[in-house]
Amino acid sequence: MLAYPQIDPVLLSIGPLDIRWYSLAYITGILLGAYYINRLIAKDTTFKGLNPFDDMIFYGILGIIIGGRLGYTLFYQPMFYLTHPLEILKLWQGGMSFHGGLLGMIGAMYLFAKKNRYPFLGIMDLCSAAAPIGLFFGRIANFINAELWGRVSDVPWAMVFPGAGPLPRHPSQLYEALLEGLISFIILYLLASKAKIRNQHGIIAGSFLICYGLSRFVVEFFREPDAHLGFFFEYVTMGQMLSLPMILGGIYLIFYVHKTNIKGD
Predict the structure, then answer these.
(1) Mean pLDDT per 10-residue run, the chain (265 residues)?
(2) φ/ψ of residue 164, rounded to 5
(3) CA atoms of 56 and 108, how far apart (whole Å)
């Protein structure tokens, strides 16, 4: 068993203002993601004039926040928020869903693409290629916050997380950082490095859906399910149920792009 590293979730306090690792992870992920998108844009004349540091980031952040919060209320605690609707606005209390944030991002990028006359699937390729960067830092922040811990285990690297009881558990946040973040980024980076794939808008987006869906589905076997939800059908978690449509959607998108053999949509 390994000792859990006690890291203060608050990186720095300036008067009443607390700068948390979690906030820093979001900011770092967004900025590095935008920088990487800029690198990809330089290789594709389709996006001439596009600057991700302008409206694109604004649309993306708005989509993630609105979608992530609404997704959490609908997927994880619908009855509570149905009877306490004002609680939805209390973002500082936590409660965000990646799958909801993904839907919010898709909606926001659709509006952005149509407004600026860029191919929607091409824009989604750019966002998908950069997404693992934010996922990596986000999962590291989950680990620092000692949240979303894994199931009880006796593996040599298991840890006792604060607030999770006395038994050692899988550091599932690190598993997710590795699979959803680092490995997914490498796969998508290799795909994005090929001009033929970049020119078939939708391949990278579909590959991201598959990578994340598979990664999350696997890690859910090691991650403790939400206490108020538990298991469905005795073995399946909500995270796995939400990841299956991502995998199927990614496969469909790739086949659709190959079949139509078009650039963009």
Answers:
(1) 86 79 87 92 84 85 87 78 74 73 92 93 95 94 91 96 94 97 97 91 96 96 83 85 94 92 52
(2) -110, 10
(3) 9
Cα–Cα dist 258/201, whole Å: 10
| Other CB atoms within 10 Å distance of the CB of residue 151 | 15
Cβ atoms of 136 and 184 within 8 Å: the answer is no
d(CA 56, CA 77): 30
User: Mutual orientation of helices 184-192 and 120-144 as an angle, nearest 10°?
Assistant: 160
Of 190, 187, 237, which Cα lies nearest the Cα of 217?
Answer: 237
CB atoms within 10 A of CB 247: 17
Q: Can you give the pTM of this predicted structure? A: 0.87
What distance in Å separates the CA atoms of residue 212 and residue 244, rounded to the nearest whole number?
Answer: 10
Element (H, E) at 11: strand 10-14
Rounded Cα gap, residues 141 and 148, in angstroms: 11
Burial of 154: CB neighbours in 10 Å, binned 0-12, 13-18, 19+:
exposed
Pairing status of strand 10-14 against strand 17-20: antiparallel
Give the ranges where the chain is alpha helix by DSSP (H).
21-41, 57-75, 78-83, 98-116, 120-144, 172-176, 184-192, 195-198, 203-219, 238-260
Beta pairing partners, 169: 152, 159
In contact, 257 and 249? CB cutoff 8 Å: no
Taking the C-alpha atoms of residue 203 and residue 192, their distance in angstroms, rounded to an integer, is 9
Can you name the residues that pair with 112 across neighbouring β-strands? none
d(CA 63, CA 71): 11
